[in-house]
Amino acid sequence: MAKMARWMLAVLALCVLGPAASGEAGPAAPRIVAVGDLHGDFAAFLDIVEAAGVADAGGRWTGGKTTFVQLGDVPDRGADSLKIIRFLQKLEKAAPRAGGKTILLVGNHEAMNVTGDLRYVSAGEYAAFADGKSKARRDRLFDRNSASIIASYKEQVPDGSIPAIKRLWEGTYPLGKIEHRLAWAPKGEIGMWVMSHPAVAEIDGTLFVHGGLSVEYSVRPIAEINKQVRAALASDTGEEPSILTDPHGPLWYRGNVSRAGEDETERKDEVEPPSIEDELAQVLAAYGAKRLVVAHTPDLNGIEASNGGRLVRVDTGISSVYGGPRSYLEITGGKALAWRKTAEGKWESMALPSPD
Predict the structure, then answer these.
(1) What fold is seen in the domain 2-15+30-122+199-242+254-351?
(2) pLDDT by residue (tens digit) across 283-338?
(3) Which of 63, 130, 164, 242 has the fewest CB atoms below 10 angstroms from its CB?
(4) Contacts for 95-100 with beta carbons within 8 Å, 24 or more apart?
(5) Which segments of the protein form a coiled coil according to its record (predicted)?
(6) In whole angstroms, what is the distance from residue 15 CA to residue 282 CA?
């Protein structure tokens, strides 16, 4: 019942209030290049930005007045997320000098790293932060917390052998993890960098978001959504559901693409919420937009458009951990091209339907 109430409240709000002011609409861009989830694959990322004419291997901006959009999920699974981050930081500084721009969106995996959900952090990602003092830092951490650590391993090491306990604990604290956590913390260097980025952006009538935009959230101006994401990253209030973890929120929502896997138990004897097509129409109308570009939900066949070009999916499983094709979306003059690298190593483009 609660789910249906949210749908109905959002629809009524749209009817009464009309379109939500975007608050963060971007200026006209002569060319847009958008890239989906990277998940720590630096080689794939570099191949894409070079092919798209955005940057060279040295991190120098070559895109001129291009607006480069990366839709989040740089970290986790692959080993080289830190290398990608450092490269993106170079582009952020270099692009404006040439009249270009970078827009880096917050994905659910950025939020997970900032808030301490480390389920998908790879060993290589921790190792990338290790330095000559990492072992000493880890030893100090163990010494300062030895009583609580020993107590927590009591069942696994009944005889209380401190060397045995320390070896087990070190398995959960590889070298570099301490530095990783300090960097990704809300007040850490990378955590603050993530918080400087939006969750939703609009450029020339095209909306960009990592997960998706549900009708519930589309009653909020883009600036308000971004403000709420930043606030939640800085200090989770504990409210449920947090915008960072809400399955209908901008970081996790898959409903613009598919309703598979949704919990249907709450819908018994209730009027069904809008279809994918109807919801997309409502979301676009709410922001006065014509196209929605999402990542998060991979399609290993390549970039796909649906609903007459009004929805574009750019997560193609780029990272080698997925094995999907390297790809990017190019929008020029409102016309969209889906670029894909074939198994033979050739870049090919396909025109996508225009929502005009």
Answers:
(1) Purple Acid Phosphatase; chain A, domain 2 (3.60.21)
(2) 999 999 999 999 999 999 999 999 999 999 999 999 999 999 999 999 999 999 99
(3) 164
(4) 95/61, 95/63, 95/66, 95/68, 97/61, 98/61, 98/63, 98/64, 98/65, 99/64, 99/65, 100/61, 100/63, 100/64, 100/65, 100/66, 100/67, 100/68
(5) none
(6) 10
